[in-house]
């Protein structure tokens, strides 16, 4: 019996009201395998998915592999210098062509040695000359629609999807003077096998309500009540908030101050605040004056995710002989928060599976969660099965 009932669909309305009237989404949508498969179809096959940064593939032939919601993809720079995304699935028997990262002139399947160019064209298919009507032109790797935004690379499995850029205009304004396309990317950790739903991750990431409570003394420089919530419109592709600091140049480490060079074009006002952004369903940004930490989120099931963490820095930062030492401290500072968030997210996922799991009420400090509900429900409604 399906969980995708009319009653479930109608129950979403209680979660899309104004924050002081809204209730949490139904716990079932965080735990059900069937609902997760519905999200793979309704969201991850139609929305823009972040797969990395442009400067992670600087040279022709550079590539990086990433799997998003079970879809193996390759971010690459082609022979002409363009950045693109192609499927990593061999069009012969479905073997995943390659893992990790590197530089290549072609991709050769390790199974039967079909080979593909950087544009996905099938170059070689051994011993296929007897296959009736076989044409190599019909068996290239699918190439996905791609957009670049603020130095990030997004792709979409839906050829008819609306462009991404216009839906992120309010975030462009928020990022003014950070010169994010010109920053230098430093890769952080990849955390596989985390035991919670992808929505739990996004909700926790942009929830200021917990900051002064769960994180305690780590976040006294950025207390829960000092937030401005960006307005929400049904055409928005992002949810964001501006986090004000108690002093200039706050940052995520035990000193609560910037360790690395501040982005050079920030105003004094911008140095007294940071921000948090969700670009569902895959990207989260944590913004402070000396770094932008990003988290690419991929679900591996209803109760499991992988997170790829990276950092964007002012270009001059890497020229400092002390950079490696400072980066180690900055990364550990972020990890101090991650350890606490990981515990909370794991416990929330366990609680959502309980017969006593609530559809609780929101604090006014959870405005971003009510906005995320609206983003989700819009897409659930758009793709809800006929007759359900």
Write up what this structure looks like.
The chain is of the alpha+beta class and 388 residues long. It folds into two domains: 258 residues, Alpha-Beta Complex (Naphthalene 1,2-dioxygenase Alpha Subunit, Chain A, domain 1); 106 residues, Rieske Iron-sulfur Protein (3-layer Sandwich). It is 22% helix and 26% strand. The strands form four sheets. Strands 11-17-16-15-14-13-12 form a seven-stranded antiparallel β-sheet. The longest helix has 30 residues. The chain is globular and about 70 Å long. The mean pLDDT is 96.
Short description:
This protein has 388 residues and is of the alpha+beta class. Helices cover 22% and strands 26% of the residues. It has two domains: 6-47 and 168-383, Naphthalene 1,2-dioxygenase Alpha Subunit, Chain A, domain 1; 51-156, Rieske [2Fe-2S] iron-sulphur domain (Rieske Iron-sulfur Protein), CATH 2.102.10.10.
Q: Keyphrases for this structure?
A:
Naphthalene 1,2-dioxygenase Alpha Subunit, Chain A, domain 1, four-stranded antiparallel sheet, globular, 22% helix, alpha+beta, seven-stranded antiparallel sheet, Rieske Iron-sulfur Protein, 388 residues, 2 domains
Beta-strand segment tally:
17
Q: Considering DSSP H and I runs of 4 or more, what fraction of the residues is helical?
A: 10-25%
Structural class by sheet pairing and helices: alpha+beta
Instruction: From the alpha carbons, calculate the radius of gyration and give it in angstroms.
Output: 22 Å
What order do the SSEs take from the amino end to the carboxyl end, as H and E?
A: HHHEEEEEEEEEEHEHHEEEEEEHH
Mean pLDDT, to the nearest integer, reads 96
Cα(first) to Cα(last) distance is: 11 Å
Give me the side-by-side strand order of the main sheet: 11-17-16-15-14-13-12
Largest sheet: 7 strands, antiparallel
Strand portion, in percent? 25-35%
Please name the fourth-level CATH homologous superfamily of the largest domain.
Naphthalene 1,2-dioxygenase Alpha Subunit, Chain A, domain 1
Domain count, please report it. 2
Give the count of helical stretches.
8
Oligomer: single chain
- In the predicted model, the low-confidence regions spanning at least 5 consecutive residues are none
Can you tell me the overall shape? globular
Under CATH, the topology of the largest domain is which?
Naphthalene 1,2-dioxygenase Alpha Subunit, Chain A, domain 1
Q: At the first level of CATH, what is the class of the largest domain?
A: Alpha Beta
CATH architecture descriptor text of the largest domain: Alpha-Beta Complex
């Amino acid at each position: 019996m399906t969980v995708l009932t009319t009653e479930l669909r109608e129950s979403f309305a209680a979660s899309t009201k104004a924050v002081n009237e809204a209730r949490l989404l139904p716990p079932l949508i965080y735990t059900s395998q069937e609902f997760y498969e519905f999200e793979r179809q309704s969201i991850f096959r139609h929305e823009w998915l972040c797969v990395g940064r442009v400067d992670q593939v600087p040279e022709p032939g550079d590539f990086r592999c990433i799997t998003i919601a079970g879809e193996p993809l390759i971010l690459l720079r082609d022979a002409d210098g363009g950045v693109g995304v192609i499927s990593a699935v061999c069009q012969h028997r479905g073997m995943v062509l390659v893992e990790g990262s590197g530089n290549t002139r072609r991709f050769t399947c390790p199974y039967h040695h079909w080979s593909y160019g950087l544009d996905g064209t099938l170059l070689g298919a051994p011993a296929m000359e007897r296959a009736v009507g076989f044409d190599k032109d019909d068996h290239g790797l699918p190439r996905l629609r791609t957009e670049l935004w603020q130095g990030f690379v997004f792709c979409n499995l839906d050829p008819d999807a609306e462009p991404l850029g216009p839906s992120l205009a309010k975030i462009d304004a928020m990022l003014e003077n950070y010169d994010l396309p010109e920053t230098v990317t430093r890769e952080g950790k990849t955390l596989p096998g985390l035991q919670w739903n992808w929505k739990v991750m996004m909700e926790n990431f942009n929830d200021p309500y917990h900051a002064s409570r769960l994180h305690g003394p780590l976040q006294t420089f950025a207390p829960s009540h000092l937030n401005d919530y960006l307005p929400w419109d049904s055409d928005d592709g992002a949810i964001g908030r501006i986090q004000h600091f108690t002093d200039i140049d706050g940052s995520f480490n035990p000193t609560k101050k910037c360790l690395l060079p501040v982005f050079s074009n920030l105003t004094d006002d911008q140095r007294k605040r940071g921000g948090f952004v969700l670009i569902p369903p895959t990207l989260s940004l944590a913004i402070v004056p000396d770094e932008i930490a990003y988290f690419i989120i991929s679900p591996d099931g209803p109760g499991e995710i992988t997170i790829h963490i990276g950092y964007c820095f002012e270009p001059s930062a890497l020229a400092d002989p002390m950079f490696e030492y400072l980066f180690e401290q900055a990364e550990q500072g972020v990890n101090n928060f991650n350890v606490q968030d990981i515990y909370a997210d794991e416990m929330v996922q366990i609680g959502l599976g309980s017969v006593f799991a609530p559809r609780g009420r929101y604090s006014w400090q959870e405005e971003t969660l009510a906005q995320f509900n609206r983003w989700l429900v819009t897409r659930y409604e758009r793709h809800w099965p006929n007759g359900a």
